[in-house]
Amino acid sequence: MTSPLLQVEHLHVHQGQQRVLHEVGLEVRPGELWCILGPNGAGKSTLLRACMGMARPSAGTVRIDGRDLAAIPRAELARVLAWVPQYVDTSMGFTGLELVLMGRSPYLGLWGLPSSGDLQKAREVMRELGIEYLASRSVMATSGGERRLLLLARALVQAPRLMLLDEPTAFLDLKHQVELLAHLRERVRGGMAAVVVLHDVNLALACADRVLLLKQGAVLAQGAAGEILREDLLRALFDVDMDRGVTNAGQVVFVPRTLR
Ligand SMILES: Nc1ncnc2c1ncn2[C@@H]1O[C@H](COP(=O)(O)OP(=O)(O)OP(=O)(O)O)[C@@H](O)[C@H]1O
C-alpha cells in the first residue's frame, strides 16, 4: 500500500471556547478521492483548514507526505498541496488569467515573473475547464460559478499532489458540477489525491472512493463510499430519512423522504 500523502491523527481544534473538531483521524493516499459530508457547522471547512495549516490544532498532528505540517516551509508546501477555498476576495481586481497564474507562484524564479511556460500552463488549464474567455476579464466581473472555476484552475496549475476543495460545486450549474468532478476524478486516476467537501450525497456517491462523515466535530464514520453511504448512517448524519433507489442505469441514489 502506498504511504499516505495526508495523515491526520487525534486532531482537536478549538475556536475560542468552542470545540470545533474532536479526535479526528484521516489518511489520504495517492489515487484516492475523499468526500467529507456533514451538516452545516460540523467542522468540515475547519478540517480542511487544519490540513493546510490555517487552523491551529489544540492537539493532534497533521502530516503531509510524512512530514509534520508545521515544519514545512509555505513555498514547499504549495508544491505539494493546493486549496480551492469557498470564496475569493475579488476586491483587488485581478484578471482571470492573473488569478490563475497565482497558482504558479511556488515555481517562479528570483524575480517572481511568470515564464512563457507558466503562461502556457495557465492558458491550457483554462482551456480544459472552458474558461479561456475569462482570461482578460476582471474577476470582479465574473459570476459565482465562473469564480469557482477560476479557483479550480488556479489550484490545478499549481500541479499539486494533494488538492483540498471546499464545496467546489457550490454556485455551479449541473453540467459544470459534473464536469468539475469528472475532471477531478481524472486527475486522481493520474495519481493525485483530493479531499472534497460536498453537500450533495449523490454527487459524493458518484465520484468518491472514500467518504468521511463529520458530525458535531467528530467522525461519525469513514471508509469506502459504497459502504458508508447508506440510509442508517445518512439519517444519523443529517437527521433526515433517506430512501435508497437505483436508477435505470444501475446507479444508486438517495432521496430525502420528505421530498417524495
Ligand atoms: N473563526 C471562527 N471563530 C469562531 N467560531 C468559528 C470560526 N470558524 C468556524 N467557527 C465555528 O466552528 C464550527 C465549524 O465551522 P466550519 O466552517 O468548519 O463548519 P462546516 O462544516 O464547514 O459548515 P458549513 O457546511 O456551514 O460550511 C461552526 O460552529 C462555526 O461557527
TrEMBL record:
Q: Name one GO molecular function term.
A: ATP binding
The cross-references to SMART domains, in alphabetical order and at most eight, read:
AAA
Record's keyword terms, sorted: ATP-binding, Nucleotide-binding, Translocase, Transport
Q: Would you indicate the residue range of the signal peptide?
A: none
The protein's matches in Gene3D superfamilies, at most eight in alphabetical order, are given as:
P-loop containing nucleotide triphosphate hydrolases
InterPro entries on file: AAA+_ATPase, ABC_transporter-like_ATP-bd, P-loop_NTPase
Q: Where is the ABC transporter domain?
A: 6-241
Entry function: Part of the ABC transporter complex HmuTUV involved in hemin import. Responsible for energy coupling to the transport system.
According to UniProt, the name of this protein is ABC transporter ATP-binding protein
Source organism: Corallococcus llansteffanensis
